[in-house]
C-alpha cells in the first residue's frame, strides 16, 4: 500500500479518461437503487485489492459522450436514487468524474445524490489539488481510506475494513470535521456467518 504526500499524485499526470465499467440499477454501491461508474486506475495498491486489473489507468475503455448520455437517461427513473463513483480511484480520474457530476447537478440538481469511494482519507483530500477539492465539494457521501487487509470485517456496511468511514461530506465540510453518515449501521453478524448458520 502506498501513502502519497499532499498533491503528490495529480490526476493530470495519471488519468487517461478510461472507465472500467458502468452498471445501472444496482443495489450494492450505496443507499437505494444506484448507477455506478467504475473509473480506471489506482496507485494505492492495497494488499488484498479485489480487482487488481482496474489499477491500470489503461484498463477498460475511453469515457464517451454516449456513455454520459446513457448515465443521465438511466438517472431519470424515479426509483434511481443517485450516482456512485468507484474504481480504481475516482480522485485520480477527476477529468471524467467532474464532467459527469457537473452534468448530473445541471440536469437533476440535488434530486439525485452522489456517492464515492476513495483510497484517500477525508483529511488527506482537504490538503489536495483544486480538482480533487472540487470533486469532494460535489459529493454527498464518501467512503474513505485505504483497504487494510488486517482490518477486514465482513460485518461492515458498504466498506471492507474497519478503518474506512462512511462520511456525510456536506455536513463535514460545514463543520470542519468528519461527520459520519447518520444511516451507518453495521451488521452484528456477517453474511458468511448467517449463510453457514442457516444450514446447521
Detailed description of the structure:
The structure is a single chain. This protein has 7 helices and 7 strands, in the order H-E-E-E-H-E-H-E-H-H-E-E-H-H. The protein is α/β, with parallel strands linked by helices and 200 residues long. A 7-stranded mixed β-sheet has the order 3-1-2-4-5-6-7. A hairpin with a 6-residue loop joins strand 1 (18-26) and strand 2 (33-39). The longest helix has 15 residues, at 94-108. The radius of gyration is 17 Å and the shape is globular. The N and C termini lie far apart (39 Å). The model is unreliable at 190-200 (pLDDT under 50).
Concise overview:
The chain is α/β, with parallel strands linked by helices and 200 residues long.
Key features?
alpha/beta, 7 strands, globular, disordered C terminus, single chain, 7-stranded mixed β-sheet, 200 residues
Amino acid at each position: 500500500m502506498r501513502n502519497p504526500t499532499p498533491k503528490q499524485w495529480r490526476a493530470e499526470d495519471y488519468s487517461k479518461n478510461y472507465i472500467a465499467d458502468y452498471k445501472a440499477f444496482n443495489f450494492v454501491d450505496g443507499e437505494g437503487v444506484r448507477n455506478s461508474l467504475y473509473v480506471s486506475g489506482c496507485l494505492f495498491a492495497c494488499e488484498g485489492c479485489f480487482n487488481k486489473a482496474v489499477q491500470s489507468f489503461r484498463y477498460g475503455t475511453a469515457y464517451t459522450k454516449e456513455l454520459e448520455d446513457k448515465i443521465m437517461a438511466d438517472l431519470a427513473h424515479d426509483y434511481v436514487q443517485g450516482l456512485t463513483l468507484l474504481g480504481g480511484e475516482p480522485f485520480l480520474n477527476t477529468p471524467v468524474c467532474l464532467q459527469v457530476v457537473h452534468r448530473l447537478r445541471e440536469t437533476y440538481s440535488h434530486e439525485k445524490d452522489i456517492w464515492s469511494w476513495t483510497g484517500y482519507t477525508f483529511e488527506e483530500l482537504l490538503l489536495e489539488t483544486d480538482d480533487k477539492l472540487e470533486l469532494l465539494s460535489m459529493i454527498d457521501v464518501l467512503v474513505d481510506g485505504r483497504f487494510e487487509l488486517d482490518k477486514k470485517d465482513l460485518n461492515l456496511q458498504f466498506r471492507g475494513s474497519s478503518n474506512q468511514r462512511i462520511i456525510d461530506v456536506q455536513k463535514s465540510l460545514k463543520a470542519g470535521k468528519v461527520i459520519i453518515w447518520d444511516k451507518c449501521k453495521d451488521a452484528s453478524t456477517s453474511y458468511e456467518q448467517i449463510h453457514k448458520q442457516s444450514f446447521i
